[in-house]
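Support request, please re-run this one:
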Amino acid sequence: MRLQKYLAHRGVASRRKAEEMIREGVVCVNGKTVTEMGFL
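Re-run finished. Output below.
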């Protein structure tokens, strides 16, 4: 599942807002900042 889709599904943000958050370096997965779109 794509990370931005997962964030949108969990109600964190809309898919487009999640993409923006990822690009800005706001999203962390397992303690690491994510800056590229990708899959979980």
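The chain has a mean pLDDT of 95. The chain has one domain: 3-34.
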